[in-house]
Structure formats: structure tokens, C-alpha cells
């Protein structure tokens, strides 16, 4: 299982992900700002009460009822879009933070690798000097 994850992580073009992370975060913030500025239109409840007292046989009342239902559905969808865009913005921010932490971990791992390689070279030199003296 770990081998599969390692293969997946190695196949990710991290340099492209790191380069694109700020752009993704900015795009998500712009989306949230655009959607967040628009207010949710609430249907007119007075009109709804007027339609309720009309006879259902009247074609205009039926059309008005359908329009009112569509207005309610549209306002619900606008609310869902606002919530979705907020979630996208939060996920983009979290993604940017994750990418920054991954970059820092990658730099630390590189430093540890160079340190380990240097220690290995020193160990081999020390071993060869000890063996040469004996």
C-alpha cells in the first residue's frame, strides 16, 4: 500500500503544483469575492399569499405559482453556489498552506540527504584511514 502511495507522490509534478498554488488560491478568492458580493434574492411573500387566494382554474394564477416556485428554487441555488464558492476558497487556502509545508519538508529532506551523504563520505574516509594504518 505504501509503495502505491510513493509511486503516486513521485509521479506528481511538484514544481508545477508549487508554481500553480498561488494562482489557484487567488482565483478561488476572486470567485468567493464575486459570488459573495451578490445578495440572495428572496421571493416576495406578499405575492405568494395573493396567489394562494386565487382559484387554481385561473391560468394566470397557475403561471404565477410556477414563477414563484422557480424564484424560490433560484434563491436556493444561489445560496448553494455561495456556500460552494466559500468552500472552494477555503480549500484553495488550505491547498496553498499544504504546498508551502510540502516545499519546506522537501527542502529539509534535501538538507538531511546532503548531510547523510557527507557523513557517509566521512565514515568511508575514516574507515579507509583506520584500515590503512593497520
Give a verbal description of the structure:
- With 134 residues, the chain is mostly helical.
- The protein has one domain (2-133).
- The protein has four helices and no strands.
- The protein has helices at 2-11, 14-37, 45-52, 59-133.
Properties at a glance:
87% helix; 134 residues; rod-shaped; mainly alpha; single chain
Indicate the radius of gyration in whole angstroms: 31 Å
Number of helices: 4
Please tell me the total number of domains. Answer: 1
Distance between the termini: 48 Å
Q: Biggest sheet: strands, sense, closure? A: none
Mean pLDDT: 79
Quaternary status of these chains?
single chain
Q: What is the count of β-strands?
A: 0
Helix/strand order: HHHH
Helix content: over 70%
- Measured by DSSP, the beta-strand proportion falls in under 5%
| Bulk shape | rod-shaped
Which secondary-structure class do the elements indicate? mainly alpha
| Uncertain residue segments | none
